Amino acid sequence: KGNGMIGNIYSMGLALQALEATRKFYAPRKWDCAQAFSVVSAHDHQQPMAIAQMLPALVGRSYLDVAGLDCAATKDMSPHQQLPLSPMLGTHGVPRAPIQVHYSITNTLQGKHFHYSTSVTVPSGSTLLQVLEVAQEENPQTFSFQTEQTSWGTYVTSIHGLAASTEDRTYWQFLSAGDALDEGVGTYKPHAGEHIQAVFSTY
């Protein structure tokens, strides 16, 4: 993509590792690694799997380098010196201004087609998963949904009783302004007035 993204934020880690490891085979065409790394550095990675795949590219080492690490050099460091503090720490208990998020679900792929929309109010900084939960609480008959936990976080498996299927190659795709979200429902934080669409799709 023109902004430096390779695929999405979840595939970036493996893509960067592959490109760095094989850069000498990509002559004469060059890829803008600085732009790609700036995208990675600016993103607030929260999923352990995404972080694990991103770190080798960011620090210039593969997992094979672990065998040669000098643990004695870091044993005297306190925990707060080793890792940056999360920007979310210290905000607990502080009231957050409410925002309104528009949410719609659409199926024109299987069975009886449907399209429903609603607007929900959540505290600013809420995740998309919290938006879905509020919509379900306010109208469970229409906006009910089911999830499962994966190594990449929460995955929405069913909305309005319509379940995704690997056999049918279907899934619930989440979009904003027509573009697919580059984060999962458990980490993506909608902004005020944003319209989130859940569209039953095929791959």
Brief descriptors of the model:
203 residues, alpha+beta, Ferric Hydroxamate Uptake Protein, Chain A, domain 1, 2 domains, five-stranded mixed sheet, three-stranded antiparallel sheet, 6 helices, 25% helix, globular, secreted
Question: How does this model look, in words?
Answer:
A hairpin with a 2-residue loop joins strand 4 and strand 5 (162-163). The chain has helices at 12-21, 33-42, 48-59, 79-82, 128-138, 140-143, and strands spanning 98-107, 114-123, 145-150, 153-159, 162-163, 170-176, 179-180, 195-202. The chain folds into two domains: 9-66, no CATH class; 99-202, Ferric Hydroxamate Uptake Protein, Chain A, domain 1 (Beta Complex). Strands 2-1-8-6-7 form a five-stranded mixed β-sheet, covered by helices on one side. A three-stranded antiparallel β-sheet has the order 3-4-5, with helices on one face. The chain is an alpha+beta fold and 203 residues long. The longest helix is centred in the first third of the chain and has 12 residues, at 48-59.
Short characterization:
By secondary structure, the chain is of the alpha+beta class. It folds into 2 domains: 9-66, no CATH class; 99-202, Ferric Hydroxamate Uptake Protein, Chain A, domain 1 (Beta Complex). The protein has 6 helices and 8 strands.
